[in-house]
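Today's session is about reading a structure prediction critically. Students often jump straight to the picture, but the first step is always the sequence itself: look for stretches that repeat, for charged clusters, for runs of hydrophobic residues. Only then move on to the predicted structure, which in these notes is written as discrete structure tokens rather than atom positions. Here is the chain we will use throughout the hour.
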Amino acid sequence: MRRRLLVSAVIVSLAWLPAVAQDARGALDAAVTAMGASNVHAVEYTAVKGNQYALGQAPGPGKPWPRFTVTQYSLLINYDASVMREQITRIDDEKPPVGGGAGGYNPETGQGGIRPIPFGPNVNTAVRNGQTPEGALQIWLTPHGFLKGAAANAASLTATPRDRNGLLSLSFKAFDKYTVTGLLNRDNLVERVRTTVAHPLYGDSVIEAQYSGYQDVGGVKFPSRIVQTQGGFPLLDVPVTVQPGAAAAAALTVPAPGGRGRGQGQGPAAGPAQGPARLSTRELAPGFWAVEGGAQSFVIDFRDFIVIVEAPANPARVDAVLTEARLLVPNKPIRYVVNTHQHADHSGGLRAVVAAGLTLLTHQVNVPFYEKMLRNPATIEPDALAKNPKAPVLEGMRDKKVITDGTRVVEVYHVRGNLHSEGLLMVYLPKERMIIHADLFSPRPAEAKQLPWSPLTQNFYDNIRRLKLDVAQMVHVHGGMDSFDKLVAAANLPR
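Below is the predicted structure for this chain, in token form.
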């Protein structure tokens, strides 16, 4: 009797599978009809106001990303060629400015100008090639793009019943690792599209696009508002107008290979070089090296150990930094990896630090945040930590931490009251009279000398004076080294 029941259950479950597939195909067909997706080949969305938020650049751990005002937005999509271009012009008008991700220097707020880049509104342009996983996901996150992606991946299409809000979930699996889910409302319009992507620090990170205010334009339904979130925080919020089949969108073609994936006509970034290659290093003082490229790391040699400052970018980059440190200083353990602050470009490699079993020194305000982030699953792109999970070894400091071997002394200080990050640290080498800092100062272009002071520059200066540090050289995490006199001149302050 028991065996009969088991056989019956198997037969029922097998009979149910085609019904589920049929339900999914029926839901997709209904949405394609309701949205008029079959008639959409190219589209242009534009906006002249809205908000954009800088991913991973919050003023404190776990806080929302900083907000910027959008003054121009353009999203061009050629569905037939599977390519899109998004362009955002934004200004940093928050008062006071908090967090990172700023563009050109704004004389009203003092934000920006952290790197010597052009002034004025910051323009971000990205071209997405739908032949690549990253580009395809971006296109499939759009409402009509989702329906086209679902049709192209119909073999994996599934549907679930409508929830109490009337939303039906339609999902497909792509590239053997991404699940893309669209939520259809009672009118069979795409209300939300979400997927999970890999982030170097946050691990599996959910990105979602929300669409509302649908209007009929030539028999096709288009949204009038786009809201994007990642990790539960907003990324973009713009009210849009639409031009179906716009000439500019229809003219988009797949970018030529070998570009950098930024700007019109440029293709996706080239793949990494094959085979191991040493990173570029520069000795700034005896036993003190900069590991160059993008956001830098630093290696400091002590009698019986070494210390690394900063684990930026991603785990692969930091793995290379750890290898380079051991080549520069063989047969010595790494006592600490010092993290200046929690912004993603400065902490993206911390998973490699944990995987290597190293102690991470950071400000105590970051400890609960890192405890959570560094235990997150990373199934989309599993790294060494995902394959061999370890508990992070974290040491939280408050105002000052002295690292010494009895001969060499390195002092780590909290940068109090800084608007860029609550837990910002700077590293001082007293004998060398050098200070390593992140995002606090970089010389402005000549035409900016007379602009009003920056609160970041002022705060950096104030902290150095408060601590009575004898600084001759500023070492910038984002590259280069300058005399302290340049900070004084830029801030128009006494030496």
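Discussion point for the tutorial: Residues 2-35 form the longest helix (34 residues).
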